[in-house]
Amino acid sequence: xxxxxxxxxxxxxxxxxxxxxxxxxxxxxxxxxxxxxxxxxxxxxxxxxxxxxxxxxxxxxxxxxxxxxxxxxxxxxxxxxxxxxxxxxxxxxxxxxxxxxxxxxxxxxxxxxxxxxxxxxxxxxxxxxxxxxxxxxxxxxxxxxxxxxxxxxxxxxxxxxxxxxxxxxxxxxxxxxxxxxxxxxxxxxxxxxxxxxxxxxxxxxxxxxxxxxxxxxxxxxxxxxxxxxxxxxxxxxxxxxxxxxxxxxxxxxxxxxxxxxxxxxxxxxxxxxxxxxxxxxxxxxxxxxxxxxxxxxxxxxxxxxxxxxxxx
Length: 312
Hints:
The protein has helices at 2-11, 46-51, 97-106, 113-136, 139-159, 164-192, 205-217, 234-249, 261-265, 271-278, 283-291, 306-310; strands at residues 14-15, 18-20, 25-26, 36-37, 43-44, 56-59, 70-73, 223-224, 230-231. By secondary structure, the protein is mainly alpha-helical. β8 (223-224) and β9 form a beta hairpin. α3 (97-106) runs antiparallel to α4 and α5 (139-159) runs antiparallel to α6. The two termini are 47 Å apart. The model has no long low-confidence stretch (mean pLDDT 83).
């Protein structure tokens, strides 16, 4: 098994999402001699994941064979919906980050403290999108162009070693190239969200396969509704989720009246035990909890990671 994992790592292959049967092989024996194993996998490379992000594999029943057939289905990805805002930690390292935040924070907003905070965070999203568009979008392509410019500049320097304008141009390109390479690395680790990726894995086919696999996992290609009908279209998948959780959570009219005798007659906490539960939460405790969150952890519902609140 280790040899197989090493081969997949070297080839930059990753297993796609699998449904139905858990095992793909059986020895066809009876009783206690019966063995089940998961030997067969549907593995793809990063190019496949990028081209077909919604592909899934179904392990079918084996029939009279000892191996189960694996059927790979390619579902069209729905790109019509707007992408949700996600704060990229590399933005916090940009020289325009703090002035941009300070500018938005100075704008007058009226209401309760929570409303003012949410309104300003919402206003920042448009500014961050603009910053990303001007500096960090298509970052790999920009790095390639800068690398070519640096090569051309250094070749010209070889013919004129004392040309100060060329030397300054080289330094400027190097600074921008280092900045974008650092940002590319930060974005890559933030999007990968896998623990077994090491620094030396970045820019390898294995790493990009990991990133593509992560995106594929987040995509729901099909699901069965409460009647057992398989849903493969976005609208029907949405209705299946809505119906299930509406039935699971119920409605406001279904809430039972509270029986306060349970509180009176049941076990209670002492005053000593209640004190830590009812004491005021300090700003230091909030900051410590927030700063303990890793930078690459998933963001909150508003799209902001802990990296935004730690910046500055």
